[in-house]
Amino acid sequence: MARKKSLELYRNIGIIAHIDAGKTTTTERILYYTGRKHQIVDVHDTKDGKGSTTTDYLEQERKRGITIQSAAVSTEWKGHQINLIDTPGHVDFTIEVNRSLRVLDGAVVVFDGVAGVEPQTETNWRLADQYNVPRLCYVNKMDRTGANFEHCVKGIRERLGASVLLCQVPLGSHDEFIGMADLVAGVGYLWKGDDKDSPWDTVPLNEIASRVKFTTAADQAWVDNLEKLRQETLEYALAMDDAAFDRLIETGEFDQETLKECIRKGCVSGKLVPVFCGSSYRNKGVQQLLDGVIDYMPYPGENGGIALVDEDGHITGEQGVIDDAPARALAFKVINDQFGTLTFCRVYSGVIKKGDTLQNVTRGKKERIGRIVEVQANATKEIDEVRAGDICAFVSLKETETGDSLSDPAHPALLERMRFPDPVISVSVEPKSRNDIDKLSSALYKMVKADPSLRLEMDKETGQTVLKGMGELHLEVTIDRMRTELGVDANMGKPKVSFREAFGRTVEHTYTHKKQSGGSGQFAEVTMIFEPQASGSGVVFSDEIVGGRVPREYIPAVEHAVNVESREGQIAGYEVVDFKARLIDGKFHDVDSSALAFEIATRQCFREAQKLSKPKLLEPVMRLEVVTEADYLGDVIGDINRRRGTVSDQGQKGTQAFVQGFVPLAEMFGYINFLRSATRGRGTFTMEFDHYEEVPANLVDTLMEKESK
Question: Which is higher by pLDDT, 419 or 610?
Fold first, then answer.
């Protein structure tokens, strides 16, 4: 069956932002205005559990009024197919943004018009940079008290380093927000009301000043400077095309279609970031935002394909987004419930049909494609085939996990994998009744398979099952989802910090393993140097043996022993990170040496060397931002200092004051209770992992005692 729509008529986009910037509200309006649904549900109307927005359908999302997992929907606008993913804004669920951006061609970044650039926006922006995703900015909530478009645009320029192109500027703010001036089209849009079907007047730019007057000087300044602002936008955009720019400078003339093509070229290449504004809740600006998505966001493959890699992750080529090529797809999300498994995939090339067999190149397994569905949040629609550029879900794949590459068996290829953060917090998990022991193990396995930012371990000393994640809310929601989606109740222990260990200094050490009494003997000697490395460098093994002092067949056993032993350090049994292990010398016996003997020798050498290095205990340090009224700022800063934290910045964010800093995670449990009390419920905070830092020697015993309770 031939392609129904040209690839140029597709847009795969994500909605990304900090929590409460209005992503889900914007998505609801997009679905309404594109005709996908006929009734709007607002986020604040879902907390009674009786209704839900289209993309926030989980019970946990309705109760908390936040997005927890990314949800995909498809719709149409002016003949274009838009595949849209609404992503979470809470830092604990950054993994959802990560894997969504990996497979999307563009992103709409939503900003709160009052708060401007917020911490999670910065995190998401860095992820978009990492995956080379073109962006379009939408300054939302211009109807709120304290909304400041200029402050927001300044933050986008300075804190995100974006080359901003103003496509729109607001007409009014707060109660006076009535629309926006379109600097590209040269007109203003003046709404006649706040109703979802309210019409607007389209007014030439030079007539706006005679139609509107605003009480605040800042709002009026946008109106007074419209001609100047438009000229700046024209010059900046047309600079993408030398001939068009020269024509503008020489004659003052330009072609509207060429202007849009220049903005598109700049946006797709990442040289420009178009900025729009509006109020999704007041139903102003969403249709114009959709026009911007069509005009400026890339179609699949326009910004390049996906890298092909070898088993070590080195890039070997690129797969373009075309139908006429071997089928290749990337699995970016797995959902498990009592009804089965849905594996979300982005198809990069070829055609995949019902009944086809694909190779899971990552795991070396075959997968038969039984059913293919188009996903509308929690609803599905069966389809017969998918093509390059499509986002779909395969039903009941048995072996495929997040990040796996699916390929035509005759032309296997590995697609570039995603990079996931390490968890920083853990809890013990146990079943509520003995009858649930087996069910709990199965449920936990399904949750971890679906969410790569979760880890599952067994505590060797206590025998407890330990679940690791990105934050308290992340783990709490995971346990709650096991109850609602898989029917398994579990008790969650007190959260604990995921510490790390490191070598304190460079150590050279020799260990001889000798067992030669009775029967076959064992002999191996290794001399190794262990060197501390920079934070984030991981574990590096270096084989520096010359002259056959250690036979080549035993080197892999030495490397394996280093990797295994690094999982459990000598201070408190935490993972040892950021070091280089150099094998420089050794001895062997013609009869008694073996791979096992060299593994035992290496493990003992590692243990003794780490103790000799005066090892360091490392703790996760979180980036913290608190927003509250200025009256409470002193108490907040004093408390950060008491928690062994440091303040890095403070100032005004709209009508509120903010303070930013770094605080050890071990000191942050239950912080919300302090903040509510200190600010009379008016303060909010966001926290995300930033780096690991050495624990002061005088606090090691105290922290370890606290963690063992």
Answer: 610
